[in-house]
Write a structure and sequence with these properties.
2 copies of one chain form a homodimer. The first copy, chain A, is mainly alpha-helical and about 425 residues long. The first copy, chain A, is built from 21 helices and 6 strands. The first copy, chain A, folds into 3 domains: about 5-115, Alpha Horseshoe (MgtE N-terminal fold); about 130-240, CBS-domain; about 260-430, Orthogonal Bundle (Tetracycline Repressor, domain 2), CATH 1.10.357.20. The first copy, chain A, has helices at about 5-15, 20-25, 30-40, 45-50, 55-65, 65-75, 80-85, 90-100, 100-110, 120, 135-145, 170-175, 185, 200-210, 230-250, 260-290, 290-295, 300-325, 335-365, 370-400, 405-430; strands spanning about 130, 155-160, 165-170, 195, 215-220, 225-230. The longest helix of chain A is centred in the last third of the chain and has 33 residues, at about 335-365. Chain A starts with 5 loop residues before the first helix and ends with a helix.
Chain lengths: ~425, ~425
């Protein structure tokens, strides 16, 4: 396959759907992939490049010559162009932009005027807008005459006034079933979403979900239409945010497809370092009770059971809370109700597992005092775990931080401290 | 507000977008919500009911009288009808279906012929299909004449042959910009997705993401068109699957918005019970080394540090692996490369944190032997954590199980056992 048969490869890729072709290329190892892109050069279809996963796309753009990249940019919708320009180093980006015609250049640079992770960065500047007084017939005729100026894909016609302010929208399905002589103003619907250019992409994604949208207009602060967001870009945002939450909960910094060992270490070592400190804090708690540990060695054997179960209960509550916050189910009164519910859940599970642990410990060591100690400690730790599993993320949220990041370390440290303190403290009272 | 002013309430809700009205109702406490639905009765707009979150919708349908529910069903697209019928108990479902006209009834029951969580359950049976030989003009005229039979929202016209087999699709945007006399067969594109009725909804959602779709046709095994999936339903599936993964990783069984303490206990106690068993297995490992623990109490103080850091490293690798599997980045060769990468990451972090832990332990206890013991144990545990964090989910996946469920408990147990065994085992060799 790798005997440099460029034409065979180009033909193979052309036969596949771009997404499938991209999948195929991604299955190659790093070096083979670069060699392959290098070989194809300008022949690698643009549509495949944009389908590649982030890290592969960056690699491909790196390998391709400037003029090939410039040619690629000319063919794409503006949101895809922004994506590729983001991958480039600044000097190279300037060089490539210089190769383009001035008017293209100006429009491409516009996308960069908006901050990262905003609706402005995500949107495309191509859309189909029409004034209120146009009829259905006129709108369709206009679309036929200016077929080339329309975006490749769109689901609504946006209705604007002379000042370019957004008045409403007409879904294409509505346009299709309406007689030619009806005015757009008679069939247009209100735009339910309210997405501004500078809005966080997460907020825009939330509106897409809430109103079940396939696309939505993007306006500036004066209500003027300046772009369009489509659901495929929004789905990517939703996936990204979900991945961030899941990884953050396990103490991994947002990895952008970390494919090397160095990337992995960089994204994980910081939280392990924090954990190193908190683990020694928990050790310091144990050290306070060195005396009783020295006398009753069984305490050292059972101690991790209390910590493990308490930590597990805390993580469960935390995961539920982080999810509920992400889906905006924790606003207003719901937050207070959740704290009560989680604490009561801790209490209920505490009763169940205090009894369970007590029985097993008694069966093992035949000491009613030891059994009582671990039961009471288990019970206290569960209630505490339930409470901190919800209060920590809610507090982080209220402080304006991401509730998924860092809360795991906090909750586990809090439950560890409670577990060791209550178990060894009680042991000092009961057993010595 | 709660002075039973039905008309005021009905007017308020009618003024809001259904999704916003549903949000408002959800902010009420359980009893107020039921009272409110009861009060409104048949006046509660259908569009609001379908926007309510699962548990509220079930509650609402429970409170409403049969004829109100039957009326609701008549107004909705078939996928929404299926959602509501799913909420009902079987006897009541039968009774409500009996109230409907026989032809409605038959079509409603069809949705139930497909299994839960398949594309068939999720799809709607309304779509717009046209034969190949129709022109653009004829298609638009047909849509105008049969405006009422078309689905409320659609983005493509599906092209079928006389046997109702799917031949291709024409996006509405393409239809709009094409002159009236062109045949559909000249502008239709190939359907890239291949979604069958009995396909798992997760697989269908994957195709939506891969091909950036807004809607897609659903076919039976003979390639005949029988329904349509739209992206808003798919986004809900994506969110559901993400939530399941995140909760499963923390040992919470798929909670359907568990709002009561009993629900919470039910969804969490099973994994805590498993953890109870595994925690005592780890204790048994410690018990083997009772002798050395009795002699050197510092071991009991430092033991949890090794377990906590090792567990954290394992969880990090696990989260990355579960995410990568969900996004299908672990197929073929990629899996083997990931195992190597994770083990090497464990080795690299192992070196860093073995040194860190060793230095802190030495500063605290001034014993080079103890410091050496904890360093070597930490190093071994990290490598083991990296390895098991990836191998456990991959093995579960290969065995056909969900890699997110249960893997957390396995990985933590494996790292605990390794931590205690290596630390106390080495201590026996070096310190005694």
């Amino acid at each position: 396959v790798w005997d440099r048969d460029t034409r065979w490869l180009a033909r193979l890729l052309a036969r596949l759907h771009p997404a499938d072709a991209a999948d195929l290329l991604e299955q190659l190892s790093g070096d083979d992939f670069a060699a392959c892109v290098d070989l194809l050069g300008g022949q690698l279809p643009t549509s495949i490049i944009i389908e590649l996963r982030d890290e592969y796309r960056e690699e491909a753009v790196e390998v391709l010559p400037d003029d090939a990249v410039a040619a690629v940019l000319g063919e794409l919708d503006s949101d895809d162009v922004t994506t590729i320009l983001e991958d480039l180093e600044e000097t190279r980006r300037e060089r490539i932009l210089d190769e383009l015609a001035p008017e293209d250049r100006a429009s491409l640079e516009q996308g960069f005027a908006y901050e990262e992770e905003t609706a402005g960065r995500l949107m495309q500047r191509e859309y189909f807008a029409a004034p209120e007084f146009w009829t259905v017939g006129h709108t369709i005729d206009h679309a036929r005459e200016h077929a080339d100026d329309l975006p490749a894909e769109f689901f609504e016609v946006y209705v604007i006034d002379p000042a370019h302010k957004l008045k409403g929208q007409v879904p294409l399905a509505t346009l299709l079933r309406t007689p030619r002589d009806i005015n757009l103003s008679d069939i247009m619907e209100e735009v339910e979403s309210d997405i501004r250019v500078e809005m966080d992409q997460e907020e825009a994604a939330y509106q897409f979900q809430k109103y079940s949208l396939a696309s939505a207009p993007v306006t500036d602060d004066n209500g003027r239409l300046i772009g369009m967001l489509t659901v495929d870009d929004v789905v990517d945002v939703i996936q990204e945010e979900n991945t961030e939450d899941l990884l953050a909960l396990s103490g991994v910094n947002a990895a952008d497809g970390s494919d090397t060992v160095l990337d992995s270490v960089k994204s994980r070592a910081p939280w392990l370092a924090v954990n190193l400190v908190t683990a020694f804090i928990a050790s310091a708690i144990i050290a306070i009770f060195e005396g009783v540990l020295d006398q009753v060695v069984q305490l050292a054997i059972l101690m991790p059971v209390v910590a493990a179960l308490g930590g597990n209960a805390g993580s469960q509550g935390l995961a539920v809370a982080v999810r509920a916050i992400a889906e905006r189910e924790m606003e207003g009164d719901a937050g207070r109700r959740a704290i009560l519910r989680e604490t009561l859940t801790g209490l209920a599970n505490g009763v169940i597992f205090a009894i369970g642990v007590g029985i097993i410990a008694f069966a093992w060591f035949r000491s009613p005092e030891l059994s009582l100690t671990i039961s009471v400690a288990m019970f206290a730790t569960f209630i505490w775990a339930g409470f901190s599993g919800i209060v920590v993320p809610l507090t982080l949220k209220r402080a304006g931080a991401d509730p998924a990041v860092a809360s795991s370390v906090f909750v586990l440290t809090l439950t560890d401290i409670m577990a060791f303190f209550s178990f060894l403290g009680l042991a000092t009272l009961i057993l010595v």
